[in-house]
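Might I ask for a little of your time on a matter of protein folding? What I wish to show you is a protein chain and, alongside it, a tokenised description of its three-dimensional fold. I should value your view on which stretches of the chain appear to form regular backbone elements. You will find the record immediately after this paragraph:
***
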Amino acid sequence: MSVFLRDLKRFLLVAFGGFLMALNIVIFVQSADLFPGGLTGITLLLQNIFLKYFNIHLPYSITVYAFNLIPVWIGFKFIGKRFTFFSVVMIFISGLFTDILSGFEWLHLTDDILLCTVFGGILNAVSVVLCLFAESSSGGTDFIAIYISEKTGRSAWNLIFGFNCIVLFFAGILVGWDKALYSIIFQYASSQVTTLLYKKYSKITLLIITDKSDEIYATIKNLTNHGATVFEGRGEYSGKTHKMVYTVVSAAESGSLEKHLRTVDPNAFINVIESKDILGRFFKRQPD
């Protein structure tokens, strides 16, 4: 795929993700007065406070753009310029369409706070994952979560969830505990669906019993750039000697790799194990 087509695909993903984010804020979040995670939640909280106590309407877009200045700088400095550029596209589109769609009353679907909490959390996760698939983010604390994940090799979404709960503590004091508690459910649903759909930071161990170890290793190296270790052993049932190829890849790479390995050696016996933790050198593609 050419660089132009790849960037076009990334742009379309972040644009759609940004539109879904805005749609979710208008249909579910604002309808139930919820507070999503990160800077989006802080922006909505400030809008609520200024409107309630000072009768001043803060534009969502301008406020969230201002809050994202420092995270965007972190992205350019420590993560990747192209990664940050597409993240900025997502931030701009989500902010712009949130203000535009807020004027359409027909987008109000339900006043049921539980429905808004659950489906809002799911839709929020989908919009975030679309950006992650485009090798970008939805901005705000996502920059921080990805920075931590890239440095440690572990998912940081639950850490961000904990930070968001602290923010919601203050939201409960200022605007009411019922909205804050439902927002915790919203954020929990969003973080769990994000972890379920996005597997980059999960690790999979493959144990492959094969008679074509060289071809198997070449496939692993070409597709994932990961190494492998080859052991020799004897099958007690057949009494024959076979090779076992041991490798660790990311969960996002595992599905495609297994299909290619099956093509290389249809008779291979492949044991797929979820790895809890990996210590030592492990190849990771860095954001561009």
